[in-house]
Here is the input.
Amino acid sequence: EGKEIPWNLFMPKAPYKGSVISNETITTKTPLVNWETTHTIMRHDKKVPYVEGQSIGIIAPGPDKKGETPAKIRLYSIASSAFGDDETY
Here is the structure.
């Protein structure tokens, strides 16, 4: 409570490079992947502070499905508490 909300810490031309530890689909699988919900755990070494309800922009490595590199930013909602899944922030 009373925590300052972090804004625009990283930019497309100066991104933070994290890594995905796990990505598990938690809804029924469907051919329309935009309708799936996943539980994704990312390693960011506590350098990406966030508050519940914020979104995070992710640039996937490699080309997008149109062959463009880098891929465009995708926004994802953060549902985890600010303490994180392991409660260490």
